[in-house]
Amino acid sequence: MPQITVDYSAELADDFDRPAFARALHTAVVDIAAARPPACKTQFRRTEHTTVGPDTEGHAVVHVTLGLLAGRTEETKARLTEAVLELLRQYVKPVGGLALHASAEVRELDPSYRKYEQEG
């Protein structure tokens, strides 16, 4: 915990500094939501096709989902999503006239959430 997933349009592959975004995001999650730094995990998923309304071209999407254990206040969740949007403004710089649609949400992990770690 936290489990962070970032879905982003393929058109942003060269315009999105994903490693720097993840490091800054982990810092924000630690500062705002009291997570432990080694617990922060981010996965990036590139999506090949994006359609916005009737348009299949000229748009790019980034959506960040943060899965946290229950117990954060609504204020904390809102502060965290606002921080994510600010970080996206810093680390995603679309070129070629792309319209960027960025969003973020915090979800509580289901009580059934479990994990394990294994070193090889």
Automatic annotation (TrEMBL):
What superkingdom heads the lineage?
A: Bacteria
Q: Does the keyword Transmembrane helix apply?
A: no
Q: Which InterPro entries match?
A: 5-COMe_2-OHmuconate_Isoase (IPR004220), Tautomerase/MIF_sf (IPR014347)
The UniProt keywords, alphabetically, are: Isomerase
The record's section on Pfam families has: CHMI
The entry lists its GO molecular-function terms as: 5-carboxymethyl-2-hydroxymuconate delta-isomerase activity
Kindly provide the name given to this protein in its UniProt entry: Isomerase
Organism from which the protein derives: Streptomyces cyaneogriseus subsp. noncyanogenus
